[in-house]
Design brief:
The chain is mostly beta strands. The protein folds into three domains: about 100 residues, Structural Genomics Hypothetical 15.5 Kd Protein In mrcA-pckA Intergenic Region, Chain A (Roll), CATH 3.10.290; about 55 residues, OB fold (Dihydrolipoamide Acetyltransferase, E2P); about 45 residues, SH3 type barrels (Roll), CATH 2.30.30. It contains two helices and 17 strands. The strands form four sheets. The chain has a five-stranded antiparallel beta sheet, with no helix packed on it. A five-stranded antiparallel beta sheet has the order 10-9-8-11-12, with no helix packed on it. It has a five-stranded antiparallel beta sheet with strand order 16-15-14-13-17, with no helix packed on it. The longest helix has 9 residues.
């Protein structure tokens, strides 16, 4: 796609080559992460070589395409260096990458965006990162789930409730973290107090962290 058409949350200069690789989802391509954010790959060919060697893993799955995207809070493992990184949002609402421990690399938080009752009466939870899980945990759409990436199952539910810690993932307050002080269900809105200010956000624009 044209560089000028990049999503606003990509921390990549809009001046430069005319085109940049297009994401295959709502996230940001591994090529852009390694070359433009982390600056550990010079070009596409280096990323392709790493993929061919199976040196790159995203949340437990080997990368097979330089267009493969990291979604928010995905874990990127670089096998040769044995280092792990998580895709996060900065306070300015831009994607960023932070190094995490081996222990933290085993889990990921994702938002529940759908529920389906299957024929065998099992419940399938649809997550914002595109993954689905069969689970009998009690949760509502909008809650967050802690995913055990090794066991490939939900280990804990983080419900939307007062005093829950959240991050805004969309809208003009994207990137800000704070605690829920009030839930206005009829408007699908919550009130949040952060270090910077007190504000409102739509429930669909936040993700529960704790």
């Amino acid at each position: 796609m044209k560089r000028q058409e990049m999503p606003k949350n990509w921390p990549v200069p809009r001046k430069g080559t005319a085109f940049v690789v297009k994401s295959n989802s709502k996230g940001i391509p591994i090529l852009v992460v390694l070359r433009d954010i982390m600056k550990i790959a010079k070009d596409r060919s280096e990323v392709k070589k790493a993929i061919h060697k199976k040196d790159l893993i995203i949340s437990g799955k080997p990368v097979n395409d330089e267009k493969k995207s990291l979604e928010l809070f995905d874990v990127l493992t670089i096998v040769p260096s044995k280092k792990n990184y998580r895709l996060v949002l900065s306070k300015k609402g831009k994607y960023d990458v932070e190094e995490i421990s081996e222990k933290d690399s085993k889990i990921k938080i994702s938002k529940v965006i759908g529920k389906r009752l299957l024929k065998n009466k099992k419940v399938q939870l649809n997550m914002e990162d595109g993954r689905n899980y069969l689970s009998d945990v009690k949760c509502s759409i909008g809650d967050s789930a802690v995913i055990d990436l090794e066991k490939k199952k939900i280990s804990k539910v983080l419900p939307i409730k007062e005093n829950s810690e959240v991050i805004v993932i969309g809208g003009k307050h994207a990137g800000l973290k704070g605690k829920i002080t009030k839930i206005i269900e009829e408007l699908n809105v919550i009130e949040i107090v952060s270090e910077e200010k007190k504000f409102r956000a739509l429930i669909k624009q936040i993700m529960v962290l704790d």
